[in-house]
Write a structure and sequence with these properties.
Helices cover about 35% and strands about 15% of the residues. It has 21 helices and 28 strands. Bound molecules: 2-acetamido-2-deoxy-beta-D-glucopyranose (5 copies).
Length: about 700
């Protein structure tokens, strides 16, 4: 699934199309606040009561405006229901957007992907501002709030950068940002969802190469090697602590994370996870300590008698602020943080400046990006089982769509069920995007009862889905057509495929940044004046987030190194008509080159063929065809035997039919091609 950054023009096009499509179902889908009486669709939420209550709290604290972001205290991409404060206040559930409330007005800022949704979900208490930049919010605040008046915010929900962007505009205008560590929304939200009571789990040894003790030692070594001599590392992103200790939880849908921070010092690790930040819920500290069962305490060497640098203490999630404050108060300390995932609440404590060492990403996030041998092996394994599920889906759709009974939702449920039958499966890694015809042209479309289309042989269909497995996280998109695609559809599909292939087969010096390769994914489309409005790929984790920073093709991603996994996912979207995306996951591996050393390339670990019907082979270069044939041969040799082992014989036949070589004379190997065939193919590829 692509990460959501949008070229402005593409975003506008998509927003336009979204209006067209969503209106189709129920006529008037958005609210109309100028009508008398105002028209509210059934999807709108009455927010009068929460606004009255919030305004009362604001008055009591002499706050003139209150900012409500949509993130959590770990700046997570996906949040738990209990962190959906902005959604609870506004009714708007989209993943991006900021709300601000004053005594007289309430405004939501969100980007074009979500305008239509906001109009359907918000009541007339709320205005929608379509310029979602921080600049637009601060301009509005300066108009609405007088000099000297206070603008309240929760420092746990502001990244350092976001806070500085607000402050840079508001401070010169004499509007004061007032940090309120007790969130006002939480105070009002009586039926706020609880933290899940489930215990944390430790990864099985079979998927782990490095113990947490080894990882801690690696990070400590990086601290010792760092010229600025940090004495501690503070970890705020949820996957950082989970990775370091080889632990997983289930606090956030689709993500095996648990609420946590870690303070790792050169001689002591303080790890205060597991309880809610809210003082109101202090009683639960005990309950959430219970989420660490005895065997995990042993795993973590939590014991009063444990001595030495590898004993973990569990002070409680709430304790991170006092512990950090006490640590920073000591002379001679310096705390290393990754600014991308640290909140203003923690950052503000680390003063004076000489006690702070910042980098964009913490050393843990950088280390985690390069998978060790075991992580690489098991992540490849997870992709084999995942490919079984996707092949089952494609085979099933081909058989059943002509019957006219299948829908976007039944297809999504089918692939989810197939995944759940695979070993180690832990559910989906994100909400399945199952989109037919014009729905596939929408950003972030997932089918609902209202929007769901019946699948038809004359429409293109896009399915972007992924699984969580104990050994890895997967993410794959395939686009198919069961009837006769138009010439334009074939051309667009083939050019998207060319983009995928060109990135996948490129050879580059170690340390090359994704941003410098990215245009290879667009070039074939650009030649026709076509493009796509999202990123070209993102890191993926080992039973972690499906979007794993900081690997990928954007300007703020780190250079590629051997052992990193990334998705490669160019696309093309024609508004009100169809959408194409072809997404594979690949690992960075050494490349054999005739001369220099230290060159790298990608090895695709996703093992599902593309739709032959949509490929115009005449557009492909000989190198691209050879690449495709080698890829198909690899799919046959790895996935064929797996399908047989799982007794999926029809699916295996389907696979053979759909992985026939494109080049005449290429070896039409059976499901168990000899190693020699592979070597010959790869040799041919390298010779070119
Ligand atoms: C809202 O209602 C008013 C009054 O009935 C009408 O003039 C206007 O066109 C409506 N706006 C939309 C967007 O439907
Ligand atoms: C919204 O809720 C308030 C009370 O919380 C009620 O007075 C009001 O009538 C409701 N508005 C609508 C449009 O239902
Ligand atoms: C801000 O306040 C200071 C002191 O009260 C005053 O000198 C200054 O002119 C004010 N600036 C603006 C832009 O209002
Ligand atoms: C969590 O672990 C504790 C202690 O081992 C155990 O008593 C409890 O039943 C576990 N809770 C769940 C939900 O598994
Ligand atoms: C969607 O429809 C199905 C089947 O009619 C129903 O079981 C389900 O509850 C509906 N979901 C929603 C969110 O309305």
């Amino acid at each position: 699934m692509f990460r959501s950054w949008w070229l402005l023009s593409a975003a506008l096009v998509l927003a336009g199309s979204s209006m067209g499509v969503l209106r189709e179902g129920n006529g008037r889908s958005g609210r109309n606040c100028t009508a008398h009486p105002p028209y509210l669709p059934p999807t709108a939420v009455n927010t009068t009561a929460q606004l009255v209550a919030l305004r009362r709290e604001m008055t009591a604290r002499d706050i003139h405006a209150y900012i409500i972001p949509g993130t959590d205290a770990h700046l997570s991409e996906y949040i738990a229901p209990r962190d959906a404060r902005r959604a609870w206040m506004t009714g708007f559930t989209g993943s991006a957007g900021t709300a601000v409330v004053t005594q007289t007005r309430a405004v939501l800022w969100t980007d074009s992907r979500y305008w239509e949704q906001a109009e359907r979900q918000m009541d007339c208490n709320w205005e929608l501002d379509r310029d979602s930049s921080i600049n637009s919010i601060t301009k509005w605040l300066i108009q609405e709030v007088l000099t000297g008046q206070q603008i309240g915010f929760d420092p746990f929900l502001f990244s350092i950068d976001t806070f500085q962007a607000f402050d840079a505009k508001l401070a010169p205008a004499n509007r004061t940002l007032k940090s309120l560590a007790n969130n006002l929304v939480d105070k009002l939200w009586v039926d706020r969802p609880q933290i899940r009571p489930d215990n944390l789990t430790c990864l099985p040894d079979s998927v782990v190469e490095r113990t947490w003790q080894q990882k801690v030692e690696e990070i400590r070594q990086q601290m010792r090697d760092n010229p600025y001599k940090p004495t501690a590392v503070l970890l705020s992103a949820l996957d950082e602590t989970a990775w370091l200790f080889n632990l997983r939880g289930n606090d956030i849908p689709y993500n095996p994370f648990f609420y946590s921070y870690t303070l790792l010092t050169l001689d002591k690790i303080w790890q205060p996870p597991l309880t809610p930040r809210l003082r109101l819920l202090l009683l639960r500290l005990f309950v959430h300590n219970q989420r660490v069962p005895e065997e995990l305490r042993a795993h973590l060497s939590v014991s009063p008698t444990c001595e030495g640098p590898l004993c973990v203490q569990l002070p409680g999630y709430e304790e991170v602020l006092p512990h950090l404050r006490a640590y920073v108060a000591q002379p001679g300390v310096r705390v290393w943080i990754g600014t991308e995932y640290t909140t203003q609440a923690l950052y503000a404590i680390i003063t004076p400046q000489e006690k702070l060492l910042t980098s964009n990403y913490s050393p843990v996030l950088i280390s985690k990006a390069v998978k060790d041998e075991k992580e690489q092996t098991v992540l490849r394994d997870a992709h084999i089982r995942d490919a079984v599920a996707v092949v089952q889906l494609l085979h099933w759709l081909e058989k059943n769509v002509p019957g006219g009974q299948e829908t976007e939702l039944t297809a999504a449920r089918f692939v989810e069920k197939c995944r759940s039958n695979q070993k180690f499966n832990k559910g989906s890694s994100f909400e399945t995007i199952s989109a037919s015809g014009p729905n596939a042209a929408l950003a972030h479309y997932s089918p609902t009862n209202e929007t769901c289309r019946t699948l038809r042989v004359e429409e293109m269909y896009l399915v972007d889905s992924g699984g969580q497995y104990l050994d890895g996280t997967t993410d794959i998109t395939r686009t198919v057509h069961w009837g006769t695609p138009t010439d334009f559809q074939r051309e667009a599909y083939t050019r998207v495929l060319m983009g995928n292939i060109e990135i996948s087969r490129t050879i580059f010096p170690a340390g090359t940044r994704g941003i410098n390769i990215e245009m290879l994914g667009r070039r074939a489309l650009w030649e026709l004046g076509l493009n796509y409005g999202h990123g070209t790929g993102h890191g993926v984790g080992n039973y972690f987030g499906v979007h794993e920073w900081p690997v990928g093709f954007q300007s703020n991603n780190i250079p590629f190194q051997e052992g990193m996994f990334t998705s490669i996912e160019p696309g093309y979207y024609k508004e009100n008509d169809f959408g194409i995306r072809i997404e594979d996951v690949a690992v960075v591996v050494p490349a054999k080159t005739k001369f220099g050393h230290g060159y790298l390339t990608f090895d695709t670990v996703t093992l599902v063929p593309y739709d032959r019907k949509l490929i115009k082979t005449s557009l492909l270069s000989p190198e691209q065809l050879l690449y495709l044939d080698a890829y198909y041969l690899k799919i046959r040799s790895i996935l064929g035997p797996e399908l047989k082992t799982q007794k999926l014989h029809d699916e295996c036949d389907w696979l053979m039919r759909n992985t026939e070589p494109f080049l005449s004379g290429a070896t039409a190997a059976g499901p168990n091609p000899t190693a020699t065939t592979l070597v010959v193919m790869v040799g041919l590829l390298l010779a070119l």
